[in-house]
């Protein structure tokens, strides 16, 4: 493990020094340098070592460290700069990761109340983000639209884990204890057949996130009756630890040594708040359809600038 860690640090330093070298050629101020470093990280030029670190956490059953790792990986995935081509539904799965580790405030930065319902994105993300938004903010006007869309979605020929995730939120809204347990089980099973890496399949973080969300929203006497999934990718040990620690310490699993200290600052900064815009609205390009011109997208450039300013 020490050899793996040394190699990881060595590669991070090489990549970091190259990023800084290139950035300094165009950056005139410190915040511009920070923007370039953050953007480079969002493009994967400096990655976490999630696969190996996850194995370590699960082998030792150190639940605080596992929580730290989920937190750090979620923060890494949410670094602004790399556009996904969607609106504020783009980071829906990372909301579930945030709930899984107790970083509940991230929900309100990814789906701020003022942005309203999402429309432009992968159908599962749109359905889930709108349900989460309406339920979290207790927005009764938007809730019915979100419920109707979710009920339609679960009846479609979609991947099992996606249908199960949406169905869980519907059951959560109805406080249907038996259905919540059933849908969590199906989510974990279907997750194994999804197009995810081996490491991601090893722990179904979205299922943990939904389970923790239920603890946040339900009366204790109802939540306690939800059956945990019986599946190898759901950790009952971690789930029980989170029940006992509803507001866990949020810190990094891996603290970067010199000369990489700035990476710790970037990871621990508040998540970039979603900003959306219509970049093609006034386009004269004949290839841009009227539908495209009206669509909203995450404004990654504005989010990156704001992220660094608030760091």
What's a concise summary of this model?
The chain has 311 residues and is mainly alpha-helical.
Give an overview of the whole structure:
The protein is mainly α. It contains 17 helices and 2 strands. The protein starts with a helix and ends with a helix. The relative contact order is 0.14.
Keywords:
single chain; mainly alpha; 17 helices; 311 residues; two-stranded antiparallel ribbon
What order do the helices and strands come in, and which of them pair?
Layout lengths: L1 H25 L3 H13 L7 H11 L2 H15 L14 H10 L3 H6 L12 H14 L3 H15 L5 H15 L2 H15 L6 H5 L2 H13 L2 H4 L12 H9 L16 H8 L7 E2 L12 H5 L2 E2 L1 H10 L2
Antiparallel strand pairs: 1-2
Largest sheet entry: 2 strands, antiparallel
Total number of beta strands: 2
Q: Globular, elongated, flat, extended or rod-shaped: what is the shape? A: globular
- Backbone structural class: mainly alpha
Count helical runs: 17
- Mean pLDDT equals 93
User: How much beta, percentage-wise?
Assistant: under 5%
Distance from N terminus to C terminus (CA atoms, Å) equals 32 Å
Lateral strand order in the biggest sheet: 1-2
Radius of gyration computed on alpha carbons: 20 Å
The string of secondary-structure elements, in order, is HHHHHHHHHHHHHHHEHEH
Query: pLDDT under 50 segments (min length 5)?
Result: none
The residue fraction in helices comes out at 55-70%
């Amino acid at each position: 493990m020490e050899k793996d860690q040394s190699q990881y640090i060595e590669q991070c330093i090489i990549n970091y020094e190259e990023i800084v070298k290139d950035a300094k050629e165009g950056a005139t101020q410190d915040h511009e340098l920070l923007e370039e470093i953050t953007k480079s990280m969002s493009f994967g030029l400096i990655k976490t070592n999630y696969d190996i670190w996850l194995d370590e956490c699960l082998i030792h059953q150190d639940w605080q460290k596992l929580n730290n790792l989920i937190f750090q990986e979620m923060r890494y995935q949410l670094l602004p700069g790399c556009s996904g081509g969607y609106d504020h539904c783009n980071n829906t799965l990372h909301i579930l990761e945030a709930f899984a580790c107790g970083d509940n405030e991230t929900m309100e930065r990814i789906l701020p109340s003022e942005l309203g319902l999402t429309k432009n994105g992968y159908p599962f993300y749109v359905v889930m983000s709108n349900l989460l938004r309406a339920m979290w903010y207790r927005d009764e006007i938007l809730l019915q639209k979100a419920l109707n869309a979710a009920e339609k979605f679960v009846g479609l020929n979609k991947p099992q884990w996606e249908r199960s995730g949406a169905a869980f939120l519907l059951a959560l809204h109805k406080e249907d204890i038996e259905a919540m347990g059933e849908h969590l089980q199906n989510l974990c099973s279907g997750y194994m057949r999804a197009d995810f890496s081996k490491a991601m399949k090893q722990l179904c973080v979205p299922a943990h996130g939904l389970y923790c969300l239920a603890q946040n929203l339900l009366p204790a006497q109802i939540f306690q009756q939800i059956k945990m999934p019986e599946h190898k990718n759901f950790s009952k040990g971690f789930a029980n630890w989170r029940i006992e620690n509803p507001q866990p310490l949020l810190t990094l699993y891996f603290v970067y040594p010199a000369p990489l200290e700035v990476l710790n600052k970037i990871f621990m900064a508040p998540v970039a708040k979603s900003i959306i815009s219509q970049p093609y609205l006034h386009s004269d390009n004949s290839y841009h359809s009227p539908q495209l011109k009206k669509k909203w997208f995450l404004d990654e450039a504005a989010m990156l600038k704001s992220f660094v300013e608030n760091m």
